[in-house]
Amino acid sequence: MLVRTRFAPSPTGYLHIGGVRTALFNWLFARQHGGQFLLRVDDTDQERNVEAALAPILAGFRWLGLDWDEGPEVGGPYPPYYQSQRSAKYQAGVDQLLASGAAYRDFATTDEIQAEREAAQQSGQQFTYSRRRMATTDVEAAKFVAEGRQAVVRLMMPRAGELVINDLIRGQVVFPWAGEQDHVVQRADGTCLYHLASVVDDHDMQISHVIRAEEHLSNTPRQIFIAQQLGYPLPQYAHLPYVAEPGSKNKLSKRKLDKYLKNKDFAQLKEHGERVAQRMGWEVNSEVFNPVIVDFYEHIGFLPDAILNYLLLLGWSLDDKTEEFTREEMIRDFSLERVNKAPASFDPQKLMAFQDRAMQKLPLKQKVARVLPFLQTAGLVSTPPPCDTGPYLSQIVEAAGDRIKIGGDILDYTDFFVPDSELPYDEKTLDKRLRNAPGARELLSDFRERLATIENFDAATLEHVLKEFVDQRGIKISDLVHAVRVTVTGKPVGFGLFETMAILGRECCLSRIDIALAK
RNA sequence: GGCCCCUUCGUCUAGUGGUUAGGACACCGGCCUUUCACGCCGGCAACGCGGGUUCGAGCCCCGCAGGGGUCACCA
User: Fold this and answer.
1) H or E element at residue A454
2) Nucleotide nearest to A339 (CA to C1')
3) Which of A152, A366, A471, A481 is the most buried (most CB within 10 A)?
4) How far apart are CA A72 and CA A150, in angstroms?
């Protein structure tokens, strides 16, 4: 069988991390089976600006490398891929449902329905619509119209028996038909609702596997009813557990940012991102700049592979130890059978661990390429970069080692890029290591003179010279190192001091020491 | 509330009747060390509860509890 899966985003303006996982599983399944993965825009309820609201979502997919075979911008054999443009197909479905008696025109007002619902609730009964305003003939319909009523189209749902769904993840799930409502499939204005549209589209587009989040499980009976009544063969269903909030089992949603920020790890991740954003001079809008949204990761320099790898393991595993997967391995090893049933909480720390691992595995050249755009955005390196930037940056990135976990972390080391006169100093550290440390100035001043005469200004020589220098004076390395560090970098922490100095060069180091001594 | 789903360390998970219940992240200790970040070594830590079935149950059955999803003329 040809495998065709789909992801159907609503044009909301952002791509949710939970949605990405659903999309990833669909994509992997299709790729594994040599099938197609498509994108279909669920904009039945959207007014305008669909393109604008869709752009960030498509951009997110592109960034992650989740390519779609059919859908917006790429087209395909079953266009259009926007639900708002497929109303004729839905109308045909509604007509067929009506003609076969699987649906009926209902003239009840929303108030009337609401009253019935409340009455049922009060008497402790399950609500079942009385179908009092159902019109099965044109004569009945005309009578209701004469009363000034308008019709919606409702499903004539079965009220006895049960439906057995064989879900690829959850196994057999049984629903009593009596629990289902006569759902509306078409509004009085002729527009159709999601369930009808979704079923019609999935059939038209030859979707073989509907892989979606668990919250759709209870929608499935009505969709199966529609499909059956329309004479469609049923797709296979697979309901994934949803992605839960950090430290809880509630579904992760974009709206509850404030609540998540009370979670230490989540807040830490957001702060990490904000630090990068601030250094690039961005106004941070927490609506958008938010670890629940994929853009966040792109903007601060996460690796798409790391995110995908993390998401893959959120609800799926191959065995008891394999954690790292390349794209090819993911495609090869993924299986719906091994998807978990229980919801999995989003763990920012573990995501970061995957990111760190992926980043450290990158060849130096690629790491440099990942980091450079952040320096350019921050205005520290021009675009295009001067030709000596490559070698210089390479030295820095190499010396930084695993301190750079995300691309934006390079902005923790701006001291390599600012002119000596503009180097900001951490005042507290300057106090501690230079101003208030007895004899520090003299020591530093002496060391400066020694530095001026070093023949090779490289890390090995610097280390040797400094050690010799402190030995001669009978002092500890730490008595001098900290003062030198704050002097040449402005900061209390950084990477290897000798590497740092070698990269900065003699002229720069001497100049910075002079500036600091004058403070 | 009805219906449906779920339940192994704090978190992600392995486990399909006999295991010292394994791994990863986090956490805690130690080592390394000029700071930071790594790295290395060690440690803490779980089968929701109650009944069955069985020689034997994390694995099978029943009940309970807890958590969650869903009950729209939203998607």
Assistant:
1) none
2) B13
3) A152
4) 35
Task: Decide if pLDDT at A46 tops 70.
Answer: no
Q: A86 with A43: CB under 8 angstroms? A: no
- Answer positive or negative: Cα dihedral of A70, A74, A78, A83: positive
Q: Position of tokens 């499909």?
A: A227
Cβ-contact A126, A94 below 8 angstroms? no
Residue A368: CB atoms within 10 A of its CB come to 21
Nucleotide nearest to A497 (CA to C1'): B34
List the A214 CA – B66 C1' distance (angstroms). Answer: 20
Best CA proximity match to A257, nearest among A293, A282, A295, A283: A293
pLDDT digits (tens, 9 = 90+) for A277-326: 999 999 888 778 889 999 999 999 999 999 999 999 999 999 999 999 99
Question: Nearest nucleotide by C1' from A188 CA?
Answer: B73
Angle at which helices A17-32 and A304-312 cross, to 10°: 80
A407-416 pLDDT tens trace: 999 999 999 9
Q: How far is the CA of A247 from the C1' of B44 (A)?
A: 20
Residue A429 CA to residue A136 CA, distance in Å, equals 84
Place of tokens 């009596």: A178
Note whether A55 and A281 are within 8 A (CB). no
**Rounded distance in angstroms from the CA atom of residue A41 to the C1' atom of nucleotide B51:** 51
ipTM above threshold 0.90: yes
**Residue positions of A annotated with a catalytic role:** 254
The amino acid at A315: G
